[in-house]
Amino acid sequence: MNPHPFVREDRFFAGGEWLAPASGAHLESIDPSTEEVWATVPDGDATDVGTAVTAARSALDGPWSRLAPTRRGRLLTDLAALVERDAARLGELESRDNGKPLRDTVGEVKRAAEWLRYYGGAADKIQGDVIPFRDQAHAYTRLEPVGVVGAITPWNSPISLYSWKLGPALATGNTVVLKPAESTSVSALALARLVEEAGIPAGVVNVVPGRGATAGDALTAHPGVDKVSFTGSYGTAQRIMRNAANGLKHVSFECGGKSPHLVFADADLDRAVAVATHSAFRSTGQSCSCGSRLLVQRTVYDEVLAALVARTSRIRVGPALDPATHIGPHTSAGQLAKTRAYIQLGLDEGGRVVTGGGRPAGLERGFYIEPTIFEGLGNGSRLAQEEVFGPVLTVIPFDTEDEAVAIANDTTYGLVGGLWTSDIGRAHRVSARMQAGLVSVNTFRPTHWMLPYGGYKQSGLGRENGFDALREYVEVKTVVVDYADEEPTDPFAH
């Protein structure tokens, strides 16, 4: 019996039903480790999106709106328990879909359950304020759901991003139409089955796989959608913003980064190198928050570079389902080609590859490339400025703290930044000056359900995670009740 059978998904999920796509078309999913088709999913279009939005609106106006917040929260925690129960199976689906190593995807699924559990606990703690603005009047605010949310997720960490969006959206009483990335939709449909099993009312969560140019555009432009939450490229966010403009939809975006990672000479260099290597190459570099620009103080530059090369040489590149694999293949042939093009660009710009840059030995099929380190490039180079989304690290020296901050901020992005130092004053000074939504000291990018996450500049709008995320999914209504005994003043009496 094949331990990894072919997966055929021929229906999308809307209104609590499994429906055939209107066009009858399907998309193929390629296993990045083998380059073979391993699954098919529905290719949803505007008709299918319309069906899902109608179902979401019906649920919003129906029993979901009357459900007590504590009950909503319990349904989220029930869903969390099911996700945790099925972590091994969901992790395998994810690894076959996007090439991330199994030990990473199973961990991500378990953490996704914690995200859902956190927002399940938050559901009955969402409350407004009483405002004592004058005597003999009672003023208060209500936090009400925005409405129907269109959630669009990327291919690099699907399960994680489903929970980041579903958790706060459902906790605040919204309904959701989820459009997963067209190349990694299998786990979204598996999650929809757990939504059913958890007893979440029909239409509250709907899943429509499809292409960005068809299902994605239809969802973001649909007049029945009140908010769009998107994680992906800056260019796609601009397109969504244009689509959303007609209805003045609420939008929140997380759009990537070119994150600076600073190592000062007074740092614990062994720890800094270990974390810097992981931050640059985890997930095959296919993460918006990779520390892909490593800035090293010149007095320790040679020492740090040598240690980086030694540690990088120990990274095991291999198939996603191999337990020994540290990093897997790129998710697609297109992404591999893009990384190769950037490596050539770095060489054309005068950079020097100090390790990596080729195909790993012994891997004949699959979208693989070695972790690659460049030096000799300035921060103005395209390789230092543009998001590669592959395992390519650019190492740049600096002399002073001011220079380090200037280089760190010299980018159109501002998602994540990090620094290593034993000087507590420097830790706070540099953190305050770095233009990034998350700055970490003596660690890098500690994501957690309680920590707000989002970017400055072209890295996005709004925040995910923590209680800040809840604010992205509510309208604030102010209510004023006047109970004065005297006759009201008539400004038109005289």
The CATH H-level homologous superfamily of the largest domain: Aldehyde Dehydrogenase, Chain A, domain 1
Quickly give the structural class.
Answer: alpha/beta
Low-pLDDT ranges? none
Placed side by side, the strands forming the largest sheet appear as 15-16-17-14-13-18-19
- How many strand elements? 21
Q: Average the pLDDT over all residues and give the rounded result.
A: 97
* CATH classification class of the largest domain: Alpha Beta
Q: What is the 3D shape?
A: globular
Number of helices: 16
Q: How far is the first residue's CA from the last residue's CA? A: 92 Å
GO molecular function: aldehyde dehydrogenase (NAD+) activity
EC number: 1.2.1.3
Pfam families: Aldedh (PF00171)
Family: Belongs to the aldehyde dehydrogenase family.
